[in-house]
Design a protein that fits this description.
Low-confidence stretches: none
Mean pLDDT: 95
Strand order of the largest sheet: 1-2-10-7-8-9
Number of helices: 15
Helix content: 25-40%
Radius of gyration: 21 Å
Bound molecules: ligand F0G
Number of strands: 10
Shape: globular
């Protein structure tokens, strides 16, 4: 039997479309190549004729989309000879930074907001040996401190202000274009620090060889003009949690608050890139309440078998509302990035739910319990 080609992560997969050379040490956990899952039950339930897909990036090695950016950021840090990396995080970036630093033999310093990180994410940072600095402040405070400390200590920032992060994250768009054979009509995505929406827009823009000022590393000189993967770009729709929706307020929010702790962010770093993505694509921003996003998290789990974390449900939540109102018309092909796995935050997933039925260890009790649910 001949050996099958072995998928080796997104740097090897998209080497010709990423700023790497043969001298770049590739620090990878075989991230990317995540499933694009078509939703069947939910569109039927709401009686809408849409082709609705979830790009389930919670199936990356550390359970979130951050691995796409982190393989690039850490590989480029290794190329520079960096010994340590630093990030502020609501939990997923720190998990990815910790894992990729372990792989690279570097030290990861992660600044997380005290008491606002789900246990799964904290466990990842600890398990991978990161130095965890719990700060008495929120993500935005952490971000400010990371930028300040990088001037004073030999540490490489791996937040999405590091342009290599967005280069990695753009590959999500490439995978969608490849899977569909073209770009979708609408791409819906949760927005926190606004790196991912910016990365996707770079990816979709490059996929169709379109000159764009959003493409920071090529300065509007897209290298793929002669080598497009598709001929169109989607409308980009960015959804935020209502208590942390600076793009809806038109300015930073000083005390962001939401159950979706991953996007509890008031001062997004990629403000201009995200605004450009939405305006260049004729898209929009919108907000969803905590109640709505939790209901969608539950809907995805119970109707489609997709268990995501609360922040990730925001894309599908917003998309469903806009599909129902007609803002996203029937007949559209819609993709939603689902950014992180539900196992990251099990406490929120089961809060307030009647979870377990305790029964006697005897046939009668078990049979009665089963029949009472049928
Ligand atoms: N969804 C999840 C699960 C996230 O962890 C994040 C960001 C986002 C969406 C928003 O993406 O920031 O690119 O707009 N998490 C960061 C972190 C901030 O530290 O893990 P974004």
């Amino acid at each position: 039997m001949t050996k099958q080609a072995h998928y080796q992560g997104l740097i090897e997969r998209y080497r010709d479309r990423l700023p790497v050379s043969k001298d770049t040490p590739v620090i990878s956990l075989n991230e990317g190549d995540t499933p694009l899952v078509r939703l069947h039950n939910i569109p039927r339930d709401i009686d809408k004729d849409v082709e609705l897909y979830v790009k389930f990036d919670g199936q990356n090695p550390t359970g979130s989309f951050k691995d796409r950016g982190m393989t690039m950021a850490v590989s480029k840090a290794a190329e520079k000879g960096a010994k340590a990396i630093v990030c502020a995080s609501t939990g997923n970036t720190s998990a990815a930074a910790a894992a990729y630093a372990a792989r690279a033999g570097m030290t990861a310093f992660v600044l997380i907001p005290e008491g606002k990180i789900p246990m799964g994410k904290l466990a990842q940072a600890i398990a991978h040996g990161a130095v965890v600095l719990q700060i008495r402040g929120n993500f935005d405070d952490g971000m400010r401190l990371v930028k300040e400390v990088a001037d004073e200590a030999p540490v490489e920032i791996v937040n999405s202000i590091n342009p290599f992060r967005l280069q990695g994250q753009k590959t999500g768009a490439f995978e969608i274009v490849e899977a569909l054979g073209t770009a979708p009509d609408y791409h819906c995505i949760p927005v926190g620090n606004a790196g991912n929406i910016s990365g996707y827009w770079i990816g979709y823009s490059e996929a169709c060889g379109h000159n764009t000022r959003s493409c920071t590393l090529c300065n509007g000189q897209c290298p793929y003009l002669d080598n497009p993967m598709t001929d169109k770009r989607p409308v980009m729709v960015g959804y935020q949690a209502a208590g942390a929706a600076p793009f809806m307020r038109g300015e930073p929010v000083s005390q962001p608050e939401t159950v979706a702790t991953a996007i509890r962010i008031g001062n997004p770093q990629s403000w201009d890139l995200a605004k450009a993505a939405v305006s260049e694509s004729n898209g929009w921003f919108d907000e969803v309440s905590d109640e709505e996003l939790l209901a969608t998290q539950s809907l995805l789990a119970t109707r489609e078998g997709i268990f995501c974390e609360p922040a990730s449900a925001v894309s599908v939540c917003g998309a469903l509302r806009d599909i129902q109102s007609g803002q996203i018309p029937e007949g559209s092909v819609v993709t939603c990035t689902v950014t992180g796995h539900g196992l990251k935050d099990t406490a929120t997933a089961i809060a307030g739910k009647e979870v377990v039925n305790t029964v006697e260890a005897e046939l009668l009790s078990v049979k009665e319990a089963i029949l009472s649910h049928l």
